[in-house]
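An instance noted here:
***
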Amino acid sequence: MHVACALGQGLVTIVPKESISPIGTESFCLLRSGRSGDSSPRQRKETRMPRISVLVILLLCLSALPLRAQETLTVHSLTIQDEKAVFATVESVKEVAARSRLTGTVIEIGVKEGDLVRPGQVIARVVDEKLALQIRSMESHIAALRAQFDKAAVDLERTKQLIASGNVSRARLDEVQAQYNIAEGALNAAVSDRDVIVRQAREGEVLAPVAGRILHVPLTIGTVVMPGEAIATLAGENYVLRLSVPERYGLSLQIGDPVKLEDGNRVNIVKVYPKIENGRVTVDADINGLAGYFVGKRVRTWIAGGERQTIVVPKEYIITRYGIDYVHVRQPDGRVMEVPVQRGGAVSTSDIEQGVEIISGLRDGDILEKP
C-alpha cells in the first residue's frame, strides 16, 4: 500500500511498508519539482528525508483504512409508569404517654430524649410526702392494736383454763372470745390500710407502657404533678412512612401498591385513610426496620401517578459537554449530527437495563449512533 500527498508543487511518495526496515535504518523519498517526464537540464534532485519511526508509518497506514461500522439504535416511544414525587414523614404507629398515678413531686427522672425503654421500665419517681407520714401513723396504730390483740389472746387462754377447773362461767368465756375476735379484726384492718398506703406510695414509680423510644420529657425534678399528668412521651417500636398525597393521585392508591424511597428501596402501602383533608389523602407505608433514629424525619418518595409515553435511550449514547447533553443522530442523507437533548431520570426497561429518559430533542424513529 502506497500513501501519497501533495507538498507544495511536488509530490512526496512513501515506499511500501513491506520494504521499510526496522528502526535504525533510513527511508528515502523522491521530491519532484516538475512533471515526471520533465527533460530539463536541471538534474533530478534526490532529497534525503529524516528518519521516520515505525509508529508514525503505522498511524498513516491505519488512517487510510476504512472506519468500522458504528453501533446504531432506532428510538421508539415506550409506555412507562409515571411517578410523582411526594414528601413523607416517619411516624410511630403508637405514640403514648407515661403518666403519673398520684399527686406529688417528681424526685427522679431516669430517662432522656432518644433513650430506648422496655415495657414496665421505671421512667421517673413521684413522691407524696403525706403518704410517708400516713405510713408512720399507721405503723404506730398497728403496734397499739397488736398489743391489744396480744392481751386478748392471753385473756382467752387464761379463761379457757379457768373454765376447765369450773372457776368461771361459760358466759365469761364467750365475752373474752368476742374481745379476742374484735382485737384480731382491728389489727388485720389496720395492716390492710397500711398496705394500701404503701401500695399507693409505690405508684409513684412512672412505668413505660410499651417498648419504644423516648420522644419528649416535658418535666424536671421538683415539678409537682397531678394524677394522669404526662411525665414522658414514647414512640412505639413500629414505624410507618406517612404520605400526604394529592387527591388526584391518592384516590387510585390501594393497599400493597409500591412506594419508591430516595435511597432506592421500595416499600408497600399498608393503609389508606378514607378521610380527605385539604384535598389530600393520607397513606401509610410499612418501613419497619428502615426508619432509623428520628421520628418525624422527612423522606422524599415517589408513587405511581398513571402511565405516559416517553423515549428511553441507553446512557452510553449520551455525551455531555459544558453541562449540555448531546446525542449523535443520523440524518436521512447519511450525515451524523450532534443534537442537544434534555434528559430526565434513570429508567430501566426490559431491553435497556441502564436507560435515561429523554424529555425533548428526539422523535420516534430517530436513528442514534453510539459515540
Observations:
- The longest strand covers residues 298-314.
- The helical segments are 54-63, 129-165, 170-202, 247-250.
- Confidence is low (pLDDT under 50) at residues 1-52, 64-68.
- Residues 135 and 155 are 30 Å apart (CA to CA).
